[in-house]
Records
---
Amino acid sequence: MAEKRTGGTAATKAKNKYNAKAYDQFLVTVPAGEKAEIDKATKEQGYKSRNEFVVAAIREKMVELD
């Protein structure tokens, strides 16, 4: 029987530890099919990632509140 690995590599653990300290994370839930629409808008508007697009949209809305 093969030995079961737990926890991942040292590099992965280090990255996860850094990310936990440096970033806040939250889950965004959208209706089925809307993720593809968001991805399309992300590419059309020249963003590198969905995350970059969503963060920009949130910041834009936050500026509107000021």
---
Amino acid sequence: MKGKSNYFSSLCKRSFKSSITALLGLAITLPLMTSNAIASETPNLDKINERGTIRVGMSTFVPWAMRNKQGELVGFEIDVAKRLAEDSGWKVEFVPTAWDGIIPALLAQKFDVIIGGLSITEERSKSVLFSEPYSHSGVQVAANTDLAAGFSEFSDFNSRRIKIAARRGAHTVQVARDTFPKAKILQFDDDAQAFQEVLNGNAHAVIASSPKPEHEAVKNSDKLFIPFDERLAKGNEAFAVRLGEEDKKAFFDAWIQARTEDGWLSERYEYWFSTLDWQDQIASGQ
């Protein structure tokens, strides 16, 4: 691990082009460059290296990022950001940010990168530069057992009398509108509020990124059920940086490729999304 970390840290100081395919830990040869050339080629990485800390914008939602019983941040995104920083020789500073303001905060230079389950969309790509995907989540519906009893088709929820809850600013809002154009979409500041609205019987269903719907249906089997066998959409989550920060994108792309090929990203995703082994760590109310 030490060898890989040192090598990856050294890459921060070299030139990265958009076509980079270098893998971490492999012995490769990059052209030697003068310090002036390096500065001109990797100005955004230089800032992080000089600071020694990468500032990560994120928003808390299960199981991407949560607070444990000691008040510390844990979750899939937290693991990803910490491993990126470790491999790169950096410290990491998390900047919790409201989801609907996370892109404006990035553009305002509140942090260096968004690592927060942000799905790649055409509209978002007009404002930010995405890395290669590092995870592929889905979108699913959890429905109220009484209000939606017998519902099993998309058409059952596509009605003006149907209320569907979702997290404000999330990709799931657009998925809900596209899938159920006639339904009324109720938006809340976080997933917990959206799910509570359905548990309270004030909405027929809630739409959210997996595995939140599946987990909540297991925990509240008397009040929630999953009406569909297939997910509504498959997401491609990526890091997001500011437009023009090609050096950072290339660096992150190389890291994502390496951690994908060695299986680390898959292993961490499986732990957080396919099990509830971590549940006892988490503070109540999340």
---
Amino acid sequence: MKTQLNVISLREQVYEYLRNEMTTGSMTGGSTINLNKIAEQLGISKTPLRDALIHLEIEGFVTILPRRGVMVNALELTDVKNAYEAIGIIEASIILDCFDRITPSHISRLEELNERMIKDVNNNDFSQLFQTNLAFHTVFNTLSNNPLFNKFMLPIKHRLYDFQGQSYIRDWELKNCEEHLRFINFLKQGNPQQAAVILKDFHWSYSVHEAFIKQFYAMTEQN
């Protein structure tokens, strides 16, 4: 049992290492991963490396090509559009299904996190913005009885933003915060239908944010 725990820990460490390499741009979309080189650099066998890569493939970060190696997946605008649509549908359904579980403390937490985001954006401090935004959505996403929703959405959100590096567009982030406020206000008014509309048809609408999305991904490609 002890050996198994160590193996799992090593796999997770390798996973985090590879994710960091992608986040920092050391591994870019379309490039291939040299398994022998990484195994030698980390001083590990290929077993935990392969396990970590299987995890990354499930999340969409890489594609394992039989007998040809491993390729880091480039993120296309069609991928972004599909991701926005999927997340919007799921988060809207959670609000409609779980509205009766939202308490004043949940709303206060949403307000606190959104105020923190606005303050950070205005101070040009984007270091924790992605994590704060994740925490905002987690407040209501975890109310669902279906744990697969969050397991499905979290890696997609990381792929959309964290994988691209730490480039942010101030006006876009402020627009997101404004949508958060509209969402919160509908929750306060006891109107889950309109709160769900904000999520699905505005906050996670590719067409609404298309100009910012194209600017963001063009900018990150230049980094």
---
Amino acid sequence: MVGAVVALSMLSGCSFSWGGDEEKVAAKKLGDKGTACDLPVHFTPATSWTAKAITQATVEQMGPLGHQGPLTPVCELDAKPAGHIGFLIVWSGTKGAAAPGSKSHTLMKQFVTAENFESNVKFREIKANGLPATEATYTVTDLSAGEIRPERALAVMTKQGGVVIHLGGLNADEHKAMLPAFEQAKRTLGLTSE
């Protein structure tokens, strides 16, 4: 997945920062029309993280790394401006387990199973700001780095298909430092107008 993270960071689209004139963006959340990523869900990103839309052309250039289960990446939030190494990536899809009307648990299971060298997987049915969701915590063995990294993901279903918000990180320390950003996304999550 580190390769996917690097590929996403090099190939993604235009950037969007939540700094600047806060009064103009106070009513909007990432995912709303007019923000860096037009998504079926919206949430408030962590301070200083920058968001970039991932185009279909970028996904095609990524080859196999551009898919995980029935999903493709659509938005990347980079933690570097906040002093961390890692990304919060939003994935979406409309087919198979991601089709409208499917269950978030089924989607989450397929997403995690498609991860390479995953283990210690735990699923929880939760409410993310009132939305029914499935959260997964698991570890991934990075053979090239010779280490085991924690991962966290959240799946929700919308009328426009399934969405997964995924947090990785360079290593366990970076993942832990970035968890508040994941929790904030979960706490402020909502559906965009459908």
